[in-house]
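Question thread 4412

I'm putting together a teaching handout and wanted feedback from people who do this every day. The idea is simple: show students a protein as raw sequence, then show them the structure tokens that encode its fold, then repeat with a second protein so they can compare. Below is the first pair exactly as I plan to print it.
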Amino acid sequence: MLFLIFTFFELIGDIVKNRTPLVTVGEYLFNLIPFIIYNVTPLSTLIAVLITFGTLNRTSELTAMKATGTSLYRVVAPVLLLATVLSVGLFAFDETYLPGANKRQEALLSVIKNKPAQTFFADRKWMSGQTTANGQPTRIFYYQYFDSDKNVFDNLTVFEFQPGSFNLTRRRMAGNGPSPAPPSPATSPSPYPPSLRSTSSPATSKKKTVNRRRCPTPSSPAISRT
């Protein structure tokens, strides 16, 4: 609870500045709870075990248990069993529910801080463009962020490959730009946003000719004979 309160007061400046709805803030704090539970549970368990055995030792109850013939291994067995159950539970929690909750809370945090919507799926940051008859891509797109509402990419990079040899022939980069659309006969055949289009390619660009004027050679001065 204290963790959520401190987090809310840390974000209150961004909430007021960006006029974030309280529903979004509440959803962010709700999706933050699994992350808090996963990180606080091991430390809380350790502190609870230390306090329990410290209290038993202070009140001489451990001495009384040993006097009745109870082995220390039998006293520790419930603690080990509980630790094993918690370890398995946290492992399953980390592999199933926690990744989705973290992605949602990080996306909501970007909304609260008015940052570009980040794509948190690593396998979706690479896209294949046109392919050859053999199935080899001739263009591969990489992006860091994608705003699905505005249909805009951030930090977009386009890699062009030579068909057959799959050698990299060109790389184009842009800070941001709209989603590449397939070409149509009525529009320009270039699938790139305007920030990525270039007027000429390195392989087909012609060398610019420079007009050079010939400087007149200075005439040799007349030599006077004496």
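The second pair follows. I'd like the answer to focus on this one:
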Amino acid sequence: MSTKLEDRPFTRQVWALTHRFTYERIAQRVGHVRSTTWLNNLVNRELTTKRGWAASPPEPHTWARFAEAFGVTADDVRHMIAHEWLQVKQGNHSERVTALAGRLDKLSEEDAGLISQLVNRLQPSD
């Protein structure tokens, strides 16, 4: 199991929060659904140890709190957890595409067209 942050999308989100907040403040932001010790172990220890998980995956009832703290949807958090703890990726797309897919599908046709125009302008097809 990899310990690189590229392979740990949930941990990467928590790690990013540590640049702005203490572990105590992060625990507060997620409604204390996980302890400061759990957050610290997640970021600073190997994903697994000889005795099992260093930090077990968050339970489904916590996903909405983490989603709010990360600025994503609970479904995005579910995918991050599946990727990190179970090595299950959604499709063959990058994490960036996966994170945007659900939100793009909820846009109106007009707004989706604007996004398409913007992407075509920034990255013209070959």
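Top answer:
Good format. For the second protein you could add a caption like this: The chain has a mean pLDDT of 85. DSSP finds seven helices and two strands in the chain.
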